[in-house]
């Protein structure tokens, strides 16, 4: 197997703890991987951008106040428009649900449009520019007065189409593995018929054209269903903000935020990171759960053409939870971050 280069960007908070433990694990597997750790910083140094662009895989830790530029660059400037967040329960994971066994779906987050990244302004400017912009009751923005702020939500047919096609590809791959191949679209198209409505209609058209099962839920209903009927989900395609919120919810149903991985894909670009953030409340104590980052590394291995090794790493994680002996405190154990990652390595071997 040819040597692959991985760029590891730890971020801050628990990021460095979980990324270091994961990199040590990767090196221990004996896979032909070279790991580079170029400098972070604000703005992101050119040499780091170059190294990440040229790498076969990019693994990010967690963003905080001094490393937000890194994630901004990885996700928004590099336009990683598809956020793939697998929600999968392995027996032994500490789910708050009574019967979590069988939860296995992908929450797909549209990463590039909607209300992210923030575009905000003063109400006074909006009133000046669009004095007649009104809600459904006919009330114009002028009625708010000029003190206050606004935010802009953007939906384009191009953005909705490309994420819908991405969802169809994922659904087809899952169908080939015996899953339903269903796409569940999540919007608030009843309240926002023009923006969310455009997204809803575009996704529905493309999924139906692809001949795949389709359903749509408004985000409030979807939140309830992800708790009540998580096993009925397959590919859950959310608009940006809804995906941000519901992926934390989904992660908890399958055992916790410390276990949820993600891969972020753009055109010829991808990077991998845990769903959780920098968790300042537990940072620096060596007790963060490394599972989310290890599973993100497994997604990265798959992306780098090492599917069998990715599957083997996932199986090693599954074994650690099944055994239940070396788990971090969030999962009811007493293990440290590094100990847990090393136990996964031992299971991998
Ligand atoms: P940020 O603002 O960087 O997103 P946050 O405090 O909003 O950080 P997260 O970092 O996403 O949120 O995590 C929320 C909580 O979940 C943490 O405070 C922590 O208690 C728990 N948590 C998150 N990740 C882990 C982990 N890897 N291991 C154990 N607990 C975790």
Short descriptors:
two-stranded antiparallel sheet, 12 strands, 349 residues, binds adenosine-5'-triphosphate
Structure notes:
This protein has 349 residues and is of the alpha/beta class. Helices cover 40% and strands 18% of the residues. It is built from 11 helices and 12 strands. It has a 10-stranded mixed sheet, sandwiched between helices. A hairpin with a 2-residue loop joins strand 11 and strand 12. Helix 1 packs parallel to helix 11, helix 7 packs parallel to helix 8 (240-253) and helix 9 packs antiparallel against helix 10. The longest helix is centred in the middle third of the chain and has 20 residues, at 157-176. It starts with a strand and ends with a helix.
In short:
By secondary structure, the chain is of the alpha/beta class. 40% of the residues lie in helices and 18% in strands.
């Amino acid at each position: 197997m040819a040597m692959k280069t991985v760029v590891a960007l730890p971020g801050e908070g628990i990021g460095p703890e979980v990324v270091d433990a994961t990199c040590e694990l990767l090196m221990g597997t004996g896979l032909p991987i070279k790991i580079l750790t170029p400098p972070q910083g604000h703005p992101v140094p050119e040499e780091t951008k170059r190294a990440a662009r040229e790498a076969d895989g990019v693994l990010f830790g967690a963003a905080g106040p001094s490393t937000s530029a890194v994630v901004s660059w990885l996700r928004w400037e590099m336009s990683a428009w598809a956020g793939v967040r697998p929600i999968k329960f392995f027996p032994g994971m500490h789910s708050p649900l009574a019967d979590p066994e069988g939860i296995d779906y992908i929450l797909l987050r549209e990463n590039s449009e909607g209300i992210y990244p923030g575009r905000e302004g003063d109400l006074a400017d909006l009133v000046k520019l669009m004095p007649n912009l009104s809600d459904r009751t006919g009330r114009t923005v002028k009625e708010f007065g000029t003190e206050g702020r606004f935010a802009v939500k953007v939906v384009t047919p191009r953005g909705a189409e490309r994420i819908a096609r991405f969802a169809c590809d994922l659904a087809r791959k899952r169908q080939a593995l015996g899953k339903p191949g269903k796409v569940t679209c999540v919007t608030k198209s009843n309240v926002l018929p023009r923006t969310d409505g455009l997204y809803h209609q575009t996704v529905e058209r493309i999924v139906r054209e692809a001949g795949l099962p389709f359903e749509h839920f408004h985000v409030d209903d979807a939140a309830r269903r992800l708790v009540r009927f998580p096993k009925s989900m397959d590919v859950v395609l959310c608009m940006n903000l809804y995906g941000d919120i519901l992926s934390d919810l989904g992660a908890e149903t399958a055992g916790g935020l410390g276990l949820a991985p993600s891969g972020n894909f753009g055109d010829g670009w991808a990077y991998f990171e845990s769903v959780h953030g920098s968790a300042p409340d537990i940072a620096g104590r060596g007790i963060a759960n490394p599972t989310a980052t290890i599973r993100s590394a497994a997604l990265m291995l798959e992306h780098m053409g090492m599917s069998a090794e990715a599957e083997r790493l996932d199986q090693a994680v599954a074994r650690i939870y099944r055994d239940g002996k070396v788990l971090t405190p969030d999962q009811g154990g007493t293990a440290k971050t590094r100990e847990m990652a090393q136990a996964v390595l031992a299971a991998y071997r």
